[in-house]
Write a structure and sequence with these properties.
eleven-stranded mixed beta sheet; Amidase signature (AS) enzymes; 13% strand; 511 residues; alpha/beta; two-stranded antiparallel sheet; 2 domains; 15 helices
């Protein structure tokens, strides 16, 4: 209700001259910047238009429920940036561009909750590093998006896009269906044109799955390309924020702005980190010519209609000049148990550090305080069992042999004996696979119905992955993923862009 009243108040506060708002549906960064430069509209106009659209299709209309919190200063910030532009100061490609960010990323002017009632109303003492970068670049933080509670690391039977605090996020292509997660709100908001750009986070699949299910582009960068400081964690080894956008070009724009060294995140430091200020320079519609790609066939056999669509995508890749061969396996050893153990240990350790970072604003002294609160609240397990929260409470020593052995085994078999090995043995530029299945019917009793996924190899290795729409099944989007070794974002963006331009497979939701 507070969000609804805030949006209504902000819209009613607009002057009469701003009531004829620009159309923001499917607008990209370039078209908005062109409009600013020509004087067709202002950042305040564009921000007001998004706020009106949030009210029309997110809170009412189809009730997508993707936006958790609207920034009450968004219009004020837009007006400030308009004044800067009038004075000849343009900060860069994101100047005046509205962005929605996932509600596990700290903002010093809005609550950061991870969808948990235990963090309801908690405003962190400072911005996450990437939020500071966004503000410095002239972006307008439009608000925070709903997500799977605790980024879906709380129960083995959860419903993606659901949180006890925010409720269920709904898929814009069919609101009865699931948006996938955990960056559910960011995926839905991007698909529904509720902001120019959105940002999600991923441990394993949490950017690419909702991007696929909502017909958008999603990129999880190499761990360390974007900072994670100020983000509610799951895994220091596998977590990364990343762009969720309607086009590959916009993902490239956002990627370059936020790729920066952060002393508070050691993964961003060191000479091994390969980053670029501008990733749009790698975009090439002819990039598929002469490239050799490996189709990972493991996920394709899980759904015959996804397999047929994937083979159509392969034919499009080949028409564009690529050679595609089938790859049966990526990791020869079963490292699923090791990977889960790593997550349990790192979640416990990371949450201890996150609660400490909140200082006296934290509801708990440490992770055990959260677990005790959940155990003692019957409402906490009324819908889902919270089994993962309880399992992680027993994993509190990241110096233990169990943790260190699991981590070493996971990295070895996902990197040098996994993705790196497959690329070298078959002389591949990248590996491709269907990102997921079409969106399933949301089931708040039995939870998710995943049929297939292809994010685990890159997630466990900490390597980049990008998904691009490749078509629809019964009106529901499905994406194609491209992944390769660490710091291969230039190659992946080029390949994804060439595929996007060759197929034009994205179909906006009919809102």
């Amino acid at each position: 209700m507070r969000l609804l009243l805030t949006v209504i108040f902000m819209i009613l506060a607009l002057p009469a001259a701003a009531q004829d708002l620009p159309d923001v549906v499917e607008r990209d960064v370039a078209s908005i910047q062109a409009g600013y430069e020509s004087g067709a509209f202002t950042a305040r106009d564009i921000t007001a238009a998004y706020l009106a659209r949030i009210e029309a299709v997110d809170r009412s209309g189809p009730a997508l429920n993707s936006v958790r919190h609207v920034n009450e200063r968004a219009l004020e910030r837009a007006a400030e940036l308009d004044r800067e532009r009038a004075e000849g100061r343009v900060r860069g490609p994101l100047h005046g561009i509205p962005v929605l960010i996932k509600d596990n990323i700290d903002t010093a002017d809005m609550p950061t909750t991870a969808g948990s009632v235990w963090l309801d109303g908690v405003v962190p003492p400072k911005d996450a590093f990437i939020v500071s970068r966004l503000r410095e670049a002239g972006a307008i933080i439009l608000g925070k998006t709903n997500l799977s509670e605790w980024a879906n690391f709380h129960s083995g039977t959860s419903s993606s896009g659901w949180s006890r605090l925010g409720g269920q996020v709904n898929n814009p292509y069919d609101i009865r269906r699931n948006p996938c997660g955990s960056s559910s709100g960011s995926g839905v908001a991007a698909a529904a044109s509720l902001a120019t750009l959105t940002i999600g986070t991923e441990t394993n699949g949490s950017i690419v799955c909702p991007s696929s299910a909502n017909g958008i582009v999603g990129l999880k960068p190499t761990v360390g390309l974007w900072s994670r400081s100020g983000i509610i964690p799951i895994s220091s080894t596998s977590d990364s924020p990343g762009p969720m956008t309607r086009t590959v070009r916009d993902a490239a724009v956002l990627l370059g702005v936020l790729a920066a060294e952060d002393p508070a995140d050691g993964k961003t430091l060191g000479e091994h980190v390969k980053r670029h200020d501008d990733y749009t320079r790698f975009l090439d519609a002819g990039a598929l010519t002469g490239k050799r790609l490996g189709l990972w066939t493991g996920p394709t056999g899980q759904n015959h209609r996804v397999e047929a669509l994937t083979r159509e995508a392969v034919a499009a890749l080949e028409r564009a000049g690529a050679e595609v061969i089938d790859i049966d396996t990526i990791t020869e050893e079963n490292i699923g148990g090791d990977a889960f153990n790593v997550l349990l240990y790192e979640f416990h350790h990371g949450m201890d550090a996150y609660f400490a970072s909140l200082g006296d604003r934290s509801p708990f002294a440490d992770y055990e305080g959260l677990v005790d609160a959940v155990r003692n609240d019957p409402g906490a397990t009324a819908r889902f069992d919270r089994s993962i929260l309880f399992q992680a409470s027993d994993k509190d020593d990241i110096e233990s042999a169990e943790y260190l052995e699991a981590l070493a085994r996971m990295l070895e078999h996902s990197r040098e004996k996994g993705i790196d090995r497959v690329l070298a043995e078959h002389d591949l530029d990248a590996i491709i696979a269907p990102t997921g299945s079409p969106a399933w019917m949301t089931d708040r009793v039995l939870g998710d119905n995943f049929q297939l996924a292809s994010s685990s190899p890159s997630a466990r290795a900490g390597y980049p992955i990008i998904t691009v729409p490749m078509g629809q099944i019964e009106g529901l989007p499905v994406g194609l993923s491209f992944f390769a070794s660490a710091w291969s974002e230039p190659t992946l963006l080029a390949l994804a862009y060439a595929f996007e331009q060759a197929t034009r497979a994205r179909v906006p939701p009919g809102l």
